[in-house]
Every structure is written in structure tokens, then in C-alpha cells.
Amino acid sequence: MTTVGDILNYLETLAPPAMKMDWDNVGLLCGGKSRPVTKVLVALDPFEGVCWEAKDWGAELIVTHHPLIFNPVKAVTDDTALGRSIALLCSGGISAVNAHTNLDCAPGGVNDCLAAVLGLRDVRVIDPMGTDELGREWGLLRMGTVESQPLSGFLLRVKNALHCQGLRYADGGKPVHRVAVGGGACASEWQDALNAGCDTLVTADAKYNQFWDARDAGLTLIDAGHFPTENPVVALLAQKIRAAFPTLTVKISETHADCVKFF
Length: 263
Prior knowledge:
Number of domains: 2
Distance between the termini: 49 Å
Strand content: 15-25%
CATH topology of the largest domain: Udp-n-acetylmuramoylalanyl-d-glutamate--2,6- Diaminopimelate Ligase, Chain: A, domain 1
Helix content: 25-40%
Number of helices: 10
Largest sheet: 6 strands, mixed
């Protein structure tokens, strides 16, 4: 019998909790380690629709990148989507596990997946924070190279590879060759990308001043969206869980998608 604890322990070998940011909330956030599992639903977010999908499908566990609970919760009621989600999981006996910034930083995690989807070569960690048990460096940003090309061609590559509805960007004025990536809200790290010798950073949630500052420093900043830059890791999580627990039925959410639209 496979339990929630078995799957949690395995996920923590892929993304050790020690790799998370101090402010983060990772691991088992709802349910119990001893509960048996036969079906696992994997998604980027544990939002209400995903929780309903898990219940309707009969899953005992949802595995996500983003945490179910991030800020302190003062009440669990049906007045909020979070309250309804927590109540739904509890009433259905469904556990929730996540790996957030630890998966961003881990070797083979969110940012290695993003680099691979964009076709970067010679990928390495920018400003490593440490090494894992296998001697692999880990840290937040990744950098690699593409064949030197005009920005327009690389923008098309990013849009197609990540299935973006649109891109926001500020042109640093250089051909694209050395590219840094940081899935989700990593635009504040643009200076680290520049210092590492990159001409381009692909990330999300960039602020107005970050676009200007990066552009004026000669770095092209591309905001491809939070969901598109992180969602590639979902397929990897599902694949890893299936391989480690072949008796389980593992499914990627069929309902969860980016809520951000472009008119």
C-alpha cells in the first residue's frame, strides 16, 4: 500500500525542503501521511476547480507546485475560494502536497524544465546556493545559450514553446544568445542575470520599473506569464511519480489552465 507519506518522502528527494526560500510553505499542507493513495492528481495550483476535479475523479492526493496555504488562514468557510477548497479536501479525505521554491531551485526542477522547453544549451545555475547529495549545484536562476538571433525570432520561440497568449518585453538592444530563465516571479533577479553575462531574461510578473531598469542596463526582459513559465514542470512531476509508484494512477489536471487572458 502506498501512502501520502511515501509520496511526500519521494518528492522531497527531488526537491528537498532545505532548498526552499525562508518565507515559503511546502510539503504536506492538508491531510495525513498515513492515508493510502491509489490516485494522484497533479497540477500547478491547488485552486478550487482542481480540488473539485480531484474529488470527482476519486483522487486521494493532489500534488501541486504552488501551496494550498501560503498566508495565515484565519477562517475556513465557504465565503472564500480557499476556504471552500480546504473544506472540500478535508470532507473528501484528500491530502495536498506541494513543492514550491524548493522545486524552483532543485536540479531538474522548474527552471531546468523551463530551460529545456526553450531549447537552451549548456545550462548551468546562476549564483549556486549549494550542492545536493549527488554533487549537483542548485539555486534559483538558470542560464544557457541559443544560436545568436534577432529578438523577434526568440520571442516567437518563447511564445510557441510555452503556449503563451502574448508576451510583455523590453528590448535591451542586443541579439539573443545568452539567456537566463526564472519561472514565475523572478524579474527582481534581473541584475544577477546581467552580471552572469546574459543578454536576455525570460521570467514572469515583471514590474514597470524592472522593465525600464533592465532595458537601460542592456538586458532584454521578457515576461511570458507565471502559468506558462512554470507549468512545464507539471508533466515532469507526473512522470516522476508514475515511474516511482507504478501501481498508482497519476493524472495531470484536465481542467486547470491560466486564468490570465489577453483581449
